[in-house]
């Protein structure tokens, strides 16, 4: 062991995960806001993930859907917006300015430049024209409060303009100004996704004006975000931090220094926790099981996952792009996967026989609770994985 660094073993890391990610029974939360604050961010690429991730962590999971919709669309205490790695997440409202400054600004600059470049190559109107359309679009959205792209195009017809992207290449396609511009405005923090057109599983969203927030210093915002994330997910390696944030290694190291992060020793090398957080963490005590949805923030929180995910399971539980499917957890590690069949039945598989025998009763109980929560709702992950497909075949 390196001098001055405490060794944090796999058992303790799993104990931290169980308690801080509110997965063990005694650690569960009362509100979606508490869940989001504990995790920093909920993956929002698949709309169902947000509600199912909250439900798995609430003392009363039956309240997950109405309470999450309240937080997202009525109280606006949670906000769905672009964040790390150009991905859509749901964040606590008080972190939106931090996320925008720490991760959004650089992505936004690239997105706007890409749109202008693609339009120029296609012979579409110039930046001045686009600026006019943008101003009119934001004004229309402010008048409506929330609107679909089609509704905004009724107010600003130039949003319907089309241009060819990547002409002559294998991925050539026709883009509308509305699709690309609203995406740019999203990563620039000017608009956010509002209430979906259908149920809570719908991926068709209205757009809404972004809540006002102060413009923060980039380095300060990065330090703040990292402090929150290490509290939720530390210890973590530099590779984990770089992957999760999408920052450069230089930015990661600058933020670690700014918050006075402490080094610990992990099986894979040097890890980091927040200042004052290097002391041992007591586990939940009782065994626990959880059925987490595809893209759950716990399963996707770290780049290096061997301490909670057997590499043998990776080909079954991840798609080719690295998106995780529905997972079965037992005492702080992924042990299998689950799926919902067309008749609503929740089916699961744990390949390792010894673990299957040990965890069967708890996992079966969680599956039954999940079926009860879903009722007549049917869930198909946006990114299908081999085991999920096999279980539903």
Structure description:
It comes from Streptomyces corchorusii. InterPro entries: AlkZ-like (IPR009351). This is Winged helix DNA-binding domain-containing protein. It holds the Pfam family AlkZ-like. With about 400 residues, the chain is an alpha+beta fold. Among the domains are: about 95-210, no CATH class; about 290-390, no CATH class. The protein is built from 14 helices and 13 strands. Helix 5 (about 95-120) runs antiparallel to helix 8 (about 175-185) and helix 9 (about 220-235) packs across helix 11 (about 250-260). The mean pLDDT is about 95.
What are the salient characteristics of this protein?
globular, AlkZ-like, 13 strands, alpha+beta, four-stranded antiparallel beta sheet, three-stranded antiparallel beta sheet, Winged helix DNA-binding domain-containing protein
What are the SSEs and their pairings?
Blueprint: H1 10-20, H2 32-39, E1 42-43, H3 47-55, H4 64-74, E2 78-82, E3 88-92, H5 96-121, H6 127-144, H7 149-155, E4 162-165, E5 173-176, H8 177-187, E6 191-196, E7 205-209, H9 218-233, H10 238-245, H11 249-258, E8 262-266, E9 269-273, E10 289-292, H12 314-317, E11 327-330, E12 333-340, E13 346-349, H13 353-374, H14 386-392
Antiparallel strand pairs: 1-3, 2-3, 4-5, 6-7, 8-9, 10-11, 11-12, 12-13
Helix pairs in contact: 5-8, 5-9, 9-11
